[in-house]
Amino acid sequence: MMEAILRFEKNTKFIDETNHSEAQAEVRKVSKKLKALNFRASLLKIGIWKEIAEQVEGLIVRCYFAKEKLAWEISRKQSLKKKIEIKWSDILAIRAKIMEDGTGVLEIELNRPPSFYEESTPIPRKHTIWNISSDFTGGQALNYRSP
């Protein structure tokens, strides 16, 4: 189970894409046209492993509507970026709790482990190139379902 503490900006828009059979096809059409939604997180926890953002942009959550994926990008000082990626089709359950102060917790249960990536050598003013990597959560991501 993955858990993230998030901070939502005032202009964050949310889309409810659930299994309402009549609306599902229309929602998918619309979501394919949406640009990625990015927001900051202060903590990502998977089992007992956790990543705490060391800087403002240290932990970014990206929601790719067209690709139907969620990604957590981890940036550490003097280190290559790392990324954890989840396909929407791998999500069994998702729960969001948003507090009045704008912070929230997002819990995700998966039916298979997420994918892991590490940044290749960065090139200034170019998109990040990601290489597949091994699980950097100390094996905690293999426990992708609640007991």
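the 2nd protein, sequnce then structure:
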Amino acid sequence: MKTDRWGDIIPINCHSQEVKVSSGDLLIANTSDFDLTEGKVYVCKTSYCDIEVVNDKGKLERYSYEWFDVYQGNIVKGY
């Protein structure tokens, strides 16, 4: 886990870092679009070409890897 000079965790984006995501992995949304909440942790249900998570409306939806960062044990404020 990399941190910046202030000790904050540097996010690892699933798309730009080409991270392998598996079913059950924890992911943090980096956008508030598409029925997601930025900074909220989601559980990956499947990951074949896209990531499937249960969104804020309770629906299982497919999303692009670029909308998620890897959860690194960081504290998520408000959840």
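Residues 25-70 form one domain. The longest strand covers residues 50-54.
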